[in-house]
Amino acid sequence: MIEAEKLTKDYGGGRGVFDLSFAVEKGEVMGFLGPNGAGKTTTIRQMMGFIRPDQGSVRIGGRDCFAHAAQIQRELGYLPGEPAFMEDMTGEAFLHFLAKMKGISDFGRARELMERFELDGSARIKRMSKGTKQKVAIVAAFMGGPELLILDEPTSGLDPLMQNRFIDLVLGEKQRGATILMSSHIFEEVERTCDRTVIIREGRIAAVERLEKLKKTKRKLFSVQFERPQDAAAFAASWQKGARQQGDTVQAAVTGSPDAFLKAVSAYSVRDIDLHRETLEELFLHFYGGEANDQ
Ligand SMILES: Nc1ncnc2c1ncn2[C@@H]1O[C@H](COP(=O)(O)OP(=O)(O)OP(=O)(O)O)[C@@H](O)[C@H]1O
User: Which residues form the ABC transporter domain (predicted)?
Assistant: First the structure.
């Protein structure tokens, strides 16, 4: 469905994207991941035909994205990283306008989506919060039931309840047979929806992974406080595998099943235990190296 071949956009000074080759199959949900500034938006903008590659190409359904930009933009569902609206319009008027432009005659699906996301479309867009604007952008991308959706950080600004509704929406579209490419910083969203992920770092592909592989790589960071500091020292010495002891507390990263770790810990008296699940940013840092920025 999407084929990038040696796709390059060079902004100078090492910024941009370089030599990206990957493919998204029909019916697949592909995560597009990487730290801030890695080049996700630059890649997506080339898929939309907004900017011309310096070298290489990206094709959608066999058509070059830059040469066939207008047609591709009309057909697919796109959710930009920073949606630009006609701010004076109400949400609903804007969606009607967009539906007309895209030749969507049935507004029923848009209404259904507005209800699902509890979006009140009667307010002017300029008065809406970031999260509400994001809901308008989601409805705009999905309302035509497109075969292909390209989504740039689709849940940015949404609360956890709405993030969950978004995940359900993506799973429904996947069942319908839609192909989706989605950039994201949120592990849960990626874990629950994506079949594979393209991971980019500093403008280059670091890996194309199946989700199972990424899940196996993800670490659980345990912090265990022991009743006695000498127990903490004994546990840290016996566990090894990168356990760090400080006073009565040991921190350890566990990959995969925590069973062996918990059994080893249970040989001692434990005062408290904390679990931190690794974020995507932390995973990039420990697995692929480089900078991890806060979102
Ligand atoms: N028009 C431009 N002119 C010059 N440099 C640019 C331009 N657009 C992007 N860049 C640079 O290219 C690099 C990749 O930016 P891009 O926005 O694609 O990253 P991203 O992965 O989408 O990051 P984020 O997660 O922050 O959205 C950055 O270093 C950015 O500063």
Answer: 2-227
